[in-house]
């Protein structure tokens, strides 16, 4: 099911705002991730764990960082172009584990980096040049963060998964600092509505 654009109030503060581009999970994916969280909890976790709420769950495509609000119009126009030329994708969640390495402070559900998803990631990174920013160079490992712990996750062991999720939107998020951890506010959500590739590599 496609999401429609939701015009939302832009930040009024003229100071820099912390932005990133991601994909919001649909209801079926949220339900699956809830099950992973329950299983992880039954296997034993650190005493102090902060679970990520439904509204904060996302798959990051590009981190823009501290950004001048004057660039919002350029970013939104670029995202509209990317979304209109990109078809809805299918992603495969294959494991949930400490991320990005053992004993890390995050516990996440990781997806295979399919060619289509990687192209979408690169397109979102490329728009950073239009606002004078250099994209991150680290390897793209698509994932949904499920929990955080300052002491790190030595348990549970990786939880194998085989779930195909729908990735059908581009969302521009603002990261807001809060005592209970960063909160993510959606500034713009656009449906991926491009034509399907004849080679169907969106599922490759």
UniProtKB/TrEMBL annotation:
<keyword id="KW-0378">Hydrolase</keyword>
<dbReference type="InterPro" id="IPR009097">
    <property type="entry name" value="Cyclic_Pdiesterase"/>
</dbReference>
<feature type="short sequence motif" description="HXTX 1">
    <location>
        <begin position="58"/>
        <end position="61"/>
    </location>
</feature>
<protein>
    <recommendedName>
        <fullName>RNA 2',3'-cyclic phosphodiesterase</fullName>
        <ecNumber>3.1.4.58</ecNumber>
    </recommendedName>
</protein>
<feature type="active site" description="Proton acceptor">
    <location>
        <position position="143"/>
    </location>
</feature>
<dbReference type="Pfam" id="PF13563">
    <property type="entry name" value="2_5_RNA_ligase2"/>
</dbReference>
<feature type="active site" description="Proton donor">
    <location>
        <position position="58"/>
    </location>
</feature>
<dbReference type="InterPro" id="IPR004175">
    <property type="entry name" value="RNA_CPDase"/>
</dbReference>
<feature type="short sequence motif" description="HXTX 2">
    <location>
        <begin position="143"/>
        <end position="146"/>
    </location>
</feature>
<comment type="similarity">
    <text>Belongs to the 2H phosphoesterase superfamily. ThpR family.</text>
</comment>
<comment type="function">
    <text>Hydrolyzes RNA 2',3'-cyclic phosphodiester to an RNA 2'-phosphomonoester.</text>
</comment>
């Amino acid at each position: 099911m496609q999401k429609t654009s939701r015009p939302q109030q832009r930040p009024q503060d003229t100071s820099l705002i912390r932005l990133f581009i991601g994909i919001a999970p649909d209801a079926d994916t949220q339900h699956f991730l809830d099950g992973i969280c329950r299983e992880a909890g039954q296997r034993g976790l650190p005493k102090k764990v902060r679970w990520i709420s439904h509204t904060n769950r996302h798959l990051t495509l590009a981190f823009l960082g501290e950004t001048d609000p004057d660039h919002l119009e350029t970013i939104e126009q670029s995202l509209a172009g990317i979304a209109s030329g990109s078809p809805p994708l299918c992603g495969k969640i294959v494991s949930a584990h400490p991320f990005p390495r053992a004993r890390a402070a995050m516990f996440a559900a990781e997806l295979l980096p399919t060619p289509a998803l990687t192209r979408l990631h690169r397109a979102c990174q490329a728009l950073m040049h239009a606002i004078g920013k250099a994209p991150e160079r680290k390897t793209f490992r698509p994932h949904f963060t499920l929990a955080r712990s300052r002491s790190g996750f030595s348990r549970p062991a990786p939880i194998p998964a085989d779930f195909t999720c729908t990735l059908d939107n581009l969302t521009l998020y603002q990261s807001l600092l809060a005592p209970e951890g960063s909160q993510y506010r959606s500034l713009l959500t656009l449906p991926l509505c491009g034509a399907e590739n004849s080679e169907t590599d969106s599922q490759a």
